[in-house]
TrEMBL record:
PROSITE patterns registered for this protein in UniProt: GLYCOSYL_HYDROL_F1_1, GLYCOSYL_HYDROL_F1_2
Lineage: Bacteria, Bacillati, Bacillota, Bacilli, Bacillales
A GO molecular function held by the record: beta-glucosidase activity
Originating organism: Paenibacillus graminis
Pfam families: Glyco_hydro_1
Name of the featured protein: Amygdalase
GO biological process, one term: carbohydrate catabolic process
Length: 474
């Protein structure tokens, strides 16, 4: 078995990290628009500091981002030149429903995405669309508390009905929520949750998770009614967790850490809350409010495929003295002495991608799709403006080898691979431009200065050869 002939090679971006034009085209204010760069970014994303408006003291990188809103034709032409088969992008909810609870959608927003999809299809590029990628209308945060409210399911259904109907002949592949498990780690950044002092934060998060899981199932139901040819996927911030030692307590700790994340996909792929999750909620004294029909809806509307991001593996110990944790992609993990790290401290583990692919495929037996993978690095142009990013090529080459091996030797069913940030964009975790992932360099710095000129990096021509050879030329 080798990669399928219709393997979907491509790249991925998110509306809030690339579009800009945050107040243009009747777009409403979104959670991502009020998350600043700098020291307050992570506290705001974690819901520890409430920031529901923009102020003069902070810089908000999403407001202009890389101006894809005005430059999408130029950018998609570059992707086509590389030979992209697939382009993963997301919709800004507030471009389509500016407040989230509007009765009618915003035609300017709908037309913008229609033009983007048409531009992709002109070059034979399949759009892979994330319905919500870490954005919630601020109006819904202020009025109903975002996903802590059941009303969000209704508003999400309205959004899905609108976009599935409008784009039923232009988009085939859809993802319901980006990295749905990030709700547990960045509750405001991913889902618009802000906590009140003294409330049970875990109870709020898992109730919000239930609402999102029901919304995901409802979206799947609507999609199949509107166009039975649609393929609906879920999306996990993926990575296997290794035990620090072979001590059984460490192995158990690693297993339970993985289950915290599998929980979401277990529901979306298998159609019910797994027994371990029910017991966990029971121990935490969390009693989910469910409506009649919720369990049936989850059971009858499971996803067609499972997509995930992968940047590196995780490591944990049961020993509290050993478990002095460090940040890596906002997930707590120990330093693995067998791995090197990126300039931002993320641990590089290509074999871990093969391990993760096998773990997911063994567990779910559904097609998989790697929709984020890449190296955030400092790129320094030479005197001519050229960027020789052989470090990025090396990173991607080893990860591509790993997933090809998972397909050829392990029999994993893999639909495609979209590298993260195929055009440089604003980093979600840090808000920086200097943390670059792309094959295309964008002239902009962390303070928002620059011409926004696009330039091809060394990796541009390399990835073009990889796609053209279907992964044979690496």
């Amino acid at each position: 078995m080798t990669l399928r002939q219709d393997f979907l090679w491509g790249g991925a971006v998110a509306a809030n990290q690339c579009e800009g034009g945050y107040a243009e085209g009747n777009k409403g204010l979104s959670t991502v628009d009020v998350i600043p760069a700098g020291k307050d970014r992570v506290p705001v994303m974690k819901g520890k500091v409430s920031m529901l408006e923009c102020d003069e003291e902070h810089f908000y990188p999403s407001h202009e981002a890389i101006d894809f809103y005005h430059r999408y034709k130029e950018d998609i032409a570059l992707l086509a030149e590389m030979g992209f088969k697939c382009f993963r992008l997301s919709l800004a909810w507030t471009r389509i429903y500016p407040n989230g609870d509007d009765e009618l959608p915003n035609e300017e927003g709908l037309k913008f995405y229609e033009c983007v999809f048409d531009e992709c299809l002109k070059y034979g590029i399949e759009p892979l669309v994330t319905i919500t990628h870490f954005d919630v209308p601020i109006h819904l945060v202020k009025t109903i508390g975002s996903w802590r409210s059941r009303k969000m399911v209704e508003y999400y259904e309205r959004l899905c009905e609108t976009i599935f109907t409008r784009y039923k002949d232009k988009v085939k592949y859809w993802l319901t929520f980006n990295e749905i498990n990030m709700l547990l780690h960045l509750p405001f950044g991913s889902s618009g949750l802000v906590f009140e002092e003294g409330e049970n934060e875990d109870a709020v998060k898992y109730q919000a998770a239930h609402h999102q899981l029901v919304a995901s199932a409802k979206a799947t139901e609507i999609a199949r009614r509107i166009n039975p040819e649609f393929k609906i996927g879920c999306m996990l911030a993926g990575a296997s967790t290794y035990p620090y030692t072979c001590a059984p307590d460490d192995v158990w700790k690693a297993m339970t850490r993985d289950r915290e994340h599998y929980f979401f996909v277990d529901v979306q792929s298998r159609g019910e809350y797994p027994s371990y999750a029910r017991k966990m909620l029971e121990r935490m004294d969390i009693h989910l409010e469910m409506e009649d029909g919720d369990e049936e809806c989850l059971r009858n509307n499971t996803v067609d495929f499972i997509s995930f991001s992968y940047y590196g593996s995780r490591l944990t110990s049961a020993d509290p003295e050993v478990n002095t944790q460090t940040a890596a992609n906002l997930f707590p993990t120990l330093r693995n002495p067998h791995l090197t790290t990126s300039e931002w401290g993320w641990q590089i583990d290509p074999l871990g991608l093969r391990i993760t692919l096998n773990a997911l495929y063994d567990r779910y037996q559904k097609p998989l799709f790697i929709v984020e993978n890449g190296l955030g690095a400092l790129d320094t142009p030479d005197e001519t403006g050229y960027i020789a990013d052989d470090y990025r090529i090396g990173y991607l080459r080893e990860h591509i080898k790993a997933f090809i091996t998972a397909v050829e030797e392990d029999g994993v069913d893999l639909l495609g691979y979209t590298t993260w940030g195929c055009i440089d964009l604003v980093s979600s975790s840090s808000g920086e431009m200097s943390k670059r992932y792309g094959f295309v360099y964008v002239d902009k710095d962390d303070a928002g200065n620059g011409t926004l000129e696009r330039r091809k990096k060394q990796s541009f021509e390399w990835y073009k050869k990889v796609i053209h050879s279907n992964g044979i030329e690496l």
